[in-house]
Design goal:
499 residues, alpha/beta, TIM Barrel, Rossmann fold, eight-stranded parallel β-barrel, six-stranded mixed beta sheet, 16 helices, 21 strands, globular
């Protein structure tokens, strides 16, 4: 399972290159999987050791497995020429993903010149209110609480120059507020991490919080020093135990399973994927799952079956997971509008999986998100899924004749449900301009269906079979078929994971 690395290991209070080496080595020694959680190593005073060379520090880090970036915590706060002169000593050793901190008091010219000298992919992170400053002190000195001070600084800098910074340093106490009020492209680097077994140290208690809480609130990275390098022996928690507890707390947050730019891996991480195990000859061992598409038999229609299933209900479990996929679709819909010179007036969720994603995308794009409703015409049986019709009941008045609509489903395959939804929309005189879905399972990667564009975050073609197909009929006869995969999800996952 691929997870985001979210820990930034802070190496402070060192007085020699040997001490740096030992501190890093100790932090990565136990538990052995510690390196799988550390994204960056942060240096501040270590860069000011007399006679030390940056190459020695980098060599230490490169000696360990896994890609670990450097957090250059300079907090650059001087004139543009001085800031550039400082960076000239280090830019040759920087790589994409590294972080450089800049104080918000720097001039517009300084921000522009810093951006020019840094290699592509190095992130500029602004520092506004330091985390050892209490809320009361911030109010006295700045005339406002920390979250407002950081927001004002961020907005002013964003407005004064193009692409001035990539991330903001803030404490857990300001995180939710800033997430709501700054652009989605801004990342958040969060110090003042103190879980229950730790003492506050230099952090202001009214601005600190734990790992899971900060990740759930939207932190991209967590800066930790003593929690990963010292623990709290006075409280009976040695450093190794503190690291183990820190990893456990991180694993409780959904956010570390959301991989930027990789929605398929994210779905795997969220345990939203099933595939029937196979024997050594490549034959399905089952269970199989019933798909929505049907074919006609002598007496009645029967559902196709397959070996793969996307349980997209897992993305609805937490606001962060729903928002992750909604942002992908929102971006693609904006591109669709621009490329086709069309303005979408309404998003229509197809029940039940498409409803929440339509509403979340609608919230992001400020477009009404409404839903169709099911009218069941035949209940599911051992070999068939339920049959239904779609119609508007509560939301019919939102759509007007001539409106341009995008339908939302969680999953597209045969587009049988889409066909019902299109008819319901057209009955009101509106036009379906696109179908959006979290995953497109159609065998041939269908990007156009009946002249309508399909917009998706995940496209994975999957075969489907008639129930009398020789490749699957023996499993059907053995009853190894789920017609309600979501209800049977734990059994399906157990069958797959036990192989």
């Amino acid at each position: 399972m691929s997870k985001k690395k979210v820990f930034i290991l802070a190496i402070d209070g060192v007085n020699s290159i040997e001490a740096i080496h030992e501190k890093i080595a100790d932090a990565l020694r136990e538990p052995k999987d510690m390196v799988e959680h550390i994204s960056h190593i942060k240096f501040n005073d270590a860069f000011h050791l007399e006679g030390q060379d940056i190459r020695l520090i980098l060599a230490i880090i490169e000696a360990y497995p896994g890609v670990i970036n450097i957090f250059f915590d300079f907090k650059l706060a001087d004139t543009n020429g001085t800031d550039v002169n400082v960076l000239k000593r280090y830019v040759a050793y920087m790589k994409p993903g590294d972080i450089v901190t800049v104080n918000v008091n720097c001039s517009k010219k300084a921000f522009n010149d810093i951006r020019k000298i840094l290699p592509r992919g190095v992130k500029i992170t602004i520092v506004s209110v330091l985390t050892d400053t209490s809320r009361t002190e911030c109010q006295i000195r700045r005339g406002m609480v920390p979250e407002m001070a950081i927001l004002n600084d961020s907005i002013n800098i964003l407005e004064m120059t193009l692409n001035p910074f990539d991330a903001v340093v803030c404490s857990p106490a300001e995180l939710k507020f800033l997430k709501k009020n700054l652009p989605d492209s801004i990342e958040f680097i969060v110090p003042a991490i103190r879980d229950a077994w730790m003492d506050m140290g230099q952090q202001s208690p009214d601005r600190a919080n734990g790992i899971k809480e900060a990740l759930d609130a939207g932190a991209n990275y967590l800066v930790m020093g003593s929690q990963l390098t010292k623990g709290n022996p006075d409280n009976g928690v040695d450093v190794v135990e503190s690291r183990k507890r820190s990893i456990d707390r991180a694993l409780l947050s959904k956010s570390i399973y959301l991989i930027p730019g990789n929605p398929l891996q994210t779905l795997f991480n969220l345990k939203g994927f099933y595939q029937s195990p196979r024997d050594e000859a490549g034959n399905f061992k089952g269970p199989l799952v019933a798909y929505a598409g049907t074919y006609e038999e002598v007496i009645c229609s029967t559902n196709y079956v397959g070996d793969t299933y996307f349980n997209l209900s897992v993305i609805e479990d937490h606001p962060q997971t729903l928002n992750y996929f909604a942002k992908i679709l929102a971006h693609k819909i904006s591109d669709f509008e621009q490329e086709n010179n069309v303005k979408i007036s309404c998003l229509v969720g197809v029940p039940t999986g498409g409803v929440k994603i339509a509403q979340e995308v609608g919230r992001i794009l400020d477009i009404p998100g409404i839903c169709l409703e099911k009218k069941v015409t035949a209940i599911k049986t051992v070999t068939e899924k339920e049959k239904f019709e779609l119609h508007f009941r509560r939301n019919a008045g939102v759509i007007s004749s001539g409106d341009k609509v995008i339908l939302f489903e969680d999953l597209c395959n045969n587009f049988s449900t889409s066909e019902k939804a299109v008819k319901a929309v057209e009955k009101l005189g509106a036009t379906v301009n696109a179908i959006a879905c979290v995953a497109n399972r159609s065998k041939n990667h269908q990007e156009i269906w009946n002249g309508i564009q399909v917009i998706t975050s995940i496209s994975v073609p999957s075969d489907q079979y008639r129930q009398d197909d020789p490749r699957v009929v023996h499993l059907i006869e053995q009853g190894k078929l789920s017609t309600d995969p979501k209800n049977d999800w734990e059994d399906l996952r157990t069958a797959m994971e036990n192989e």
